[in-house]
Amino acid sequence: MRFSVTFGAVGAGRDPRGLAELARIAEDCGWDGVFLEDYLVYQGEASLPTYDPWICLAAMACATSTIKLGTTVTPVPRRHPWKLAAEAVALDHLSGGRMILGVGIGDPGDPFLSGEPRVLAEMLDESLEIIAALWTGEPVHYAGKHYRLDGAQLSAVPVQEPRIPIWVGGNFLVPSVRRRILRWDGSAAYKGATDSPQQITPEDVRELLAERGETDGFEVKVRLSDGDPRAFTEAGATWQGRWIAPGPPAEAHEILRAGPPRIN
After folding, report:
1. Residue 248's pLDDT band (cuts 50, 70, 90)
2. Phi, psi of 93 (to 5 degrees)
3. What is the pLDDT of residues 10-32, one digit of tens each?
4. Minimal CB count within 10 Å: which of 19, 30, 71, 76?
């Protein structure tokens, strides 16, 4: 089991310089990963100073050397897939192959994201196909409902092979989300509606992995609040994460310096 923390790039001490320092502390104190929520306006609150998470990830990559870095999760329909593919490759090189791309359709309250959930899900699925194809470095020909490419090519490819891991977020009780999770490299999903999430159980993890079948290299991330790390390890989960709410930097420092849980 590996342990991570998740921050929003928002408020005091959460600008690129502050998040780079938090990532350095997390690495020094034994955490295995630091992830950023991907908002332009944090949870729809325009009064909160919010910083671009991709710029912050670049600063974090420069301040660390071993810890995994990524998003949980990027609302892919807000982005051009080819631009997102190029940025992820650049971060993978900058970090020496430590990038993880968490993906989802986005929050309903995102003021920069419009469309019905069904349409956003179509855009997400098409985007992931395009991103994975562009990461091969080969010309990409793609004709979908929302995107079209005719021989587009990105020559820079990820450090990681076969690609940067793609972890899927969303409500895994929704059949289309579950299918998407099983198609890609991992789950960063929650259970139930966003306004009333349920605890994921070890049995949920076992069922997901049984559906997946081949689990080599497949990651399952659950919350520390979901329960005992030992039980989740035995079920096959590979990550547990703690969300650290926006607040005074000293509070985040205290949590990080306490270190991750220890499994005896």
Report:
1. very high
2. -70, -45
3. 999 999 999 999 999 999 999 99
4. 30
In CATH terms, the fold of domain 2-258 is: TIM Barrel (3.20.20)
The whole-number pLDDT of residue 110 equals: 86
- Return d(Cα 181, Cα 177) in angstroms, integer: 6
Query: Residues 146-196: pLDDT tens digits?
Result: 999 999 999 999 999 999 999 999 999 999 999 999 999 999 999 998 878
Between strands 99-104 and 166-168, the pairing is parallel
Who has greater pLDDT, 193 or 102?
A: 102
For residue 70, which of 47, 87, 51, 82 has the smallest C-alpha distance?
Answer: 87
- Decide: 130 and 142 in contact? Cβ < 8 Å: yes
Rounded distance, CA 169 to CA 75, Å? 10
Is 123 within 8 Å of 76 (Cβ atoms)? Answer: yes
> How far, in Å, CA of 71 to CA of 73, rounded?
5
**3-class secondary structure, 249:** helix
CA pair distance 212, 237, nearest whole angstrom: 13
pLDDT band at 111 (very low <50, low <70, confident <90, very high): confident
User: Could you count the other beta carbons within 10 Å of the beta carbon of residue 90?
Assistant: 17
What is the distance between the alpha carbons of residues 32 and 20, in angstroms, rounded to a whole number?
A: 15
